[in-house]
Write a structure and sequence with these properties.
The chain is an all-alpha fold. It contains 2 helices and no strands. The model has no long low-confidence stretch (mean pLDDT 88).
């Protein structure tokens, strides 16, 4: 089977969300056994961002 390359995620402008997208985008380079933990980390990161949104005009913490 030929794999089609997946483009990098489009930046959202919200640093915390962009980090999560990059984390999930890197799954191809990780063993299958690590995927569930990555998705759990991604979910926790997105939930944290939703619960604590950055103030308008203020960069989100790194």
């Amino acid at each position: 089977m030929t794999e089609v390359p997946v483009p990098a995620p489009t930046p959202t402008g919200i640093e915390a969300v962009d980090r999560v997208l990059d984390l999930v985008a890197g799954l191809d380079d990780r063993p299958l056994e690590e995927h569930a933990a990555v998705f759990e980390e991604a979910h926790a990161g997105l939930r944290h961002t939703l619960d604590n949104p950055p103030s308008p005009g203020v960069a989100s913490p790194a």
